[in-house]
Protein 1
Amino acid sequence: MKRHFPFFYGYGMLAAVWCIYFCVFGTVLYSTSVINAGMQQAMGFSERYIGLAGTLCTLVSGLVGPLVGRLISKRGVRLTFLIGSAMVIASSLALAFLPQSVFSFLLLYGLVVGAGMGFAGLVSVQSAVNDWFDRKKSFAMAIVLTAGSVGGFMAPQIVERLLSAGDWTWGWRYVAAMAGVALVVSLLFIVNRPEDVGQFPDGLPPAKREKGAAQDGEEEGPPDRKAFVLILFSYATRTYIYYSIMAYLVIFLRYKGFSSAYGADCIALISLFSLAGRLLMGVIPERRVPANVTLGLGNIAVGAGGLLICLFDGSLPIRIGAAAFGVGVGFVTVALPLTVSRAFGQRRFAGINGKLSLINYLLAAGGPAIVGQTAAWLNDYSLPLGFSAVLVIAGGVAAFFLRLRKES
């Protein structure tokens, strides 16, 4: 039976999608660094295998993107949210309750959890926002993407306390419970598109929406290859260091003499300041500060924060580095899709963004494995992580050379 609402349900969708993103992506991504550190101590897994599992998780979450996009086009985001949540539940419970080996860890965490994050992650979230919002799309995107930061602020603290009271299996039980919440929300509150409930994007009929909406300028001819390469360079260098830091920060700080609890605090600090960066992006007027400029500044902040974490051993500079890293992540998360839209136009956004996402993960997913292998050779994380920080700064500088299309 077709549902109807006496109000614009886009804001209800925003709340539901926020909850799902918080429970799945925000929980899994930010808590696994703490869980992996616990598994390393208890199971004796080497940095090499933990890095390989992190690489597989990142790679698979990106590789399923085209499949997720096709399912969304045919069946809507509700199905992809359900599939992703169910996969995270099943794999997390298996990790918690079944005997584990290196092979099962790689299979369950690297492949199944990664696929679950891909189905219930950014592709589905951005598609839901795109379907329900037009004029208010940038503001809605900034709001919903704060869920990852809030989840990241809470998850490391909760998981660290669970591991202190029990063992590493409690971390995976927590992940499964949060994914269960996402599954219920998907079943009860997700509506695929506005027309399914007799509504329109932004709650406005087409005539009113088109009259008030700012449209991206469209140009004939092939897409700008230079713009594609520059955006990809900025995107991939940020992804490379981000997943490497998330995989190894707790372990790296233990090498520096800090406790796992301190490492969890730093991850939470990254999440908190990432939230601030995303909220700030929601209020920065794009006409005054172009999207490629905020993208470049975000990358540079990520790199500067990474260098502070790598080069200094004191608690204060490491915390400052975590804060700068987080603000940069927040800026890039919101600025990237806006930059793609402004560089290629709204009509080409979906296709270009899909290609960028796939190539980005193919290039950057090896970050945790490369960092782990290099650290094992050198018995030090500073050099591989510091090098990735320099790369992401270069990616930020590259973004300044982008030419964006003007609004018509």
Protein 2
Amino acid sequence: MVTANILGMCGSLAGKKNMDRQVCQPNGKLKTPAHLQQLRQVSSWLALILLCGISTARAEPWTLWRTTNNVTVQYRQDNQHRFNVRAETELTTSLAAFVAMLQDTEHASDWISQVKSVTLLQHDSDQEDVVKTRFKGTLLVHERWAVTRSILSQDSHQVLTLSIHNRYDPQASETGIQIRYLQARWTLTPLANGKVQIRYQGSIDPDGMIPGWLVRQHGLQVVLETFIHLRQQIKLPRYQHAHLPFITEP
């Protein structure tokens, strides 16, 4: 299972600490259109990290950022100064279609931004497996990777939950930067008339000299785009026709 690793870059910007000064003025404004393009590339990565870790700390109320194309994105900051994001949408789909889409690692990059590859490392059961996800690098951000375990569960109300956490190995040595800490949770809640609410919530405390305005303004936009892609991808017949014996449909 791809485990929906829209969870990218839990780490610092590549290079020296003064790199941010090369692309931002002190007041946070961009210097040139070229730098704007560079920052947009960085924001793609930041959108991925926004979806990485469920925070249990007390936090501020959620603030609505945008509702468009049947997708709602909210944000807040918790008392550990982590930026939290919550995205959700409602659509007509089976629960099995969503799981089948996650299992289709070959096409993960069709809807998850900046994914380079997803490799199944260990399949313990239909509800639990381990994958390695690699994320593309950009001009300012090193390529990153994470090994994650996903656990799928379903309660008596047919609510489907996919919990994800990484397995950090400080002894690992390979290309790119290993993500140190990552957690995430998908929740699929059946509604009336065949609709399903899909929610993904997470938080991140990124290292490095990453401007907060960049994380919030550009990162949220890419989170929104990822959910829009999800809404299109899940409609494909190869997912909608999937039947999985370990999933109970409402």
Protein 3
Amino acid sequence: MALGGDSRPLSLFDQIHPIYRCRQQHRCDDRTVLNLPPVSLFTTNADAARVVSLPPPRDNGSFGVMKRRRSYRGFDGSAAGAITKEQLRDCRFSRIGIVGLARADLGELPLKTTPSGGARNPYEAYVLACNDQDLPNGLYHYSALENSLAYMPCDTLPSAETVLGGQDWFSGASALILLVANFARTAWKYRHPAGFRVVLIEAEHIAQNMLLAATANGLVATPTCALNDNVIETMLDIDPVMQSPIYAVAVGTRSAPATIADLVDWSAVEHPQ
């Protein structure tokens, strides 16, 4: 099965996301696809008997970066849009960078820039470099302890679009950073189902730091969990039982044209905080 006049087979992402599939074929909106009335996306205190108003959030420092962060997929894939090694470093280190080791009964535990359940540090980061001023295109492993990149030979390097389940709007990204979980690290200490939850939640902590680092560097970035597991497992040569790709963040330089997935005109925010 393929999209419209496209002869390519549907990716897993296409198959399980009917909204995306319908947009590609008919450019229809969410209400047409789901045939349901809109659902409110926030809750107010309008009906509360007592409401305490808080001062507006600050605009300086890290608070200003948080307010500026937006997901955007319109990447500039040209040579002029290449990012620097320093920008990529900040994005990587902010995610899983190890800033020290703490001695404990369980051995040396890594202290990171993001919280980790039991300090088990279940994630490894891999970089698919596509448009970096100082880094040859290719696949790299990031050592959080050493703050270094190791080149990983790959017979056939897949595109970012292929790695991300056919999402062609990521084709211009300068780099794709993959978060791969090593479940054995957390399961060694937490041998109950909640340990799995802890691992998944940590991916969000890590990705948010990276998104803020990209914003602080004047870049755009977007996270996604629509991954082509088979392609990634083969590319990284990992054990699909004990290791799994969980999340990815694409980062790059902003281009003027938005993509079909960038649904909101962020210049028309009606309720600024």
Protein 4
Amino acid sequence: MHMICAVHADRSSRHILKRAKRSQIHVYLWNLIVYFRKKSAFVSRKPTNLLRAEKIEPTIRERVWSTSPSESERHWTGALLVSGTAHIEDAHETLALAPVSIFLAPVDKERTFRIQAGGEAVICTIPEQVVLTSIGRGPDSADIRRVLERPAVSQLLDKGGMVEQAERAFDTIQTEARQEAPGQQTMIEASLKMIFGMLLRNIPETVMPQHVSDRGSNLLLRFRQLLENRFRDRWTVAQYASELGISPDRLHDLCTEKLSKSPSVLIRDRTIYEAQMMLARSSISIKEISDRLGFRDPAHFSKYFKSASAESPRMFRDNLAQQLQQKETPALNFADWP
């Protein structure tokens, strides 16, 4: 009898243990689901309703298109004037466009686009999320950022079919903005990259940063370009100065005089900005981000990140996911990156 009771007790305890284990597995799996839902909240986020575009066909009347700043997210306006004439007006000035011209500007004020009778144009607004990923991390990224921080106008010369390429790029944005097909953001980003390249090649010398005449500004431009290429290699200020052919003290004086920041702060800001973008726009692990940014281990990366932003990389990512779940827009932009 005692043996039978012992067998039943043993079976009962094993059954309870199995149920407990299954319960633990369920809890573990549920926690995993919640974790990846939080991460995907910003990884798979679609462009917002700030993405819109319209093709202005030639008519016998003037066409008007207006833009104004958004409280929820920063965005840009792009326009291609194919034929006719147009004027872009804000509270302080009026800008005349002649064909074929590209206009690109952050929407930091109210603007009115007036396309005169007979004119043809494509006008669009692009949310910051798409602009940032389109800029990329190549050698031209620093120049693109500077161009995008102010209104830029470029009248295209038809070299190598550039006008046709511009029309195709804007038409693609206009087509993709009207639908939510798979690959929408990829198509828009590819078109934006082409537009950015045209701006870099065609903006007048008075607008482009690399056409400044004094040696100090040219050295700063070279430093910025070097920084874009080398910050992931964890170069020191001395290495940058050596590559530029100047002393670290000279580089320090140039940066503090013209940018009000030391070279080490600029290097740190660029590294932290890149880390924040990867934490916000991807689901890759913190270890992989640490490796990509050239840190010797994740602990060193976390300490570096926390010293600059007052929170750990994991806390930054979790807080960002929470903000997005609450439909708050994270304050990430490159406006302060010179």
